[in-house]
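Researcher: I'd like a structural prediction for the single chain below. Treat it as a standalone chain; there are no partners to consider.
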Amino acid sequence: MNLEAEVSRFKSWAAGEAQDYGEWETTYQEWHGLYVAAKAALSKPALDDVEMELLLYALARDNELEFIRDMLEEFPANGFRLAAAALTYADPDARWQIADFLGTLDTPEARGLLRRFVEDSDEYVRRRALLAAQKCDPIFAEEIARSWLNSPHEYSRLAALDILHELGSRYLTQALEQLREDPYVYVRERVAKIESEV
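Model: Treating it as a single chain, here is the predicted structure.
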C-alpha cells in the first residue's frame, strides 16, 4: 500500500464529513489500507520528510484507536525520528500520542525530547507528556507535578496528584492537603479517593 495514496483517500473522504464531534474519524471504512501503508513506511530503514508529514497526519487522525501510535513501539528508531519532527507539528492529536510513545523509550535522548513536550503550548499534550515521563523520568515527573499543583488547569492538577500518588512521592501528603478544598469537584473527589487508599 502507498502511504501518500492512502492519506489522499482519507482526506478526500474527510472533506465530505462533519468534523464537529470527537470521534468522527472512526467512521472511515478504509482504515485497514492506511494502517498497512503506515506500517510499511515505518518498517523502512529511514523516513524521508514527506513520509514523516504523512505519518504525523495519519497518527493524528487515528487518535481514538491509536493503532499507528502502537506501531511506533514496533519501530522505535523511526518512531523517535517522527517524535523529533512532531515537536513543531501543528496538530496536538499527533503530539500527545508521540509524547506517550516517548515514555516507552528509556534513553537520554528520548527523555530530553519528552521534556520538551511537557512544555508544549497545548495543555492536553503537556499533561500526556508528563504522565508518560513518570515511567522513564520519575524524578523530573515528580518535580513538575509538584509545580502543577498550582496550575490554573484543573486536569493538570489532577494529573499532578495522580503522578505523586503513583510514584509514592513523599510530597503526596502535602499535595492532598493543598488540594483538599480545590474549587474543582473532580480534584476534591480524587483527593478523597487517594486518602481512602493510603
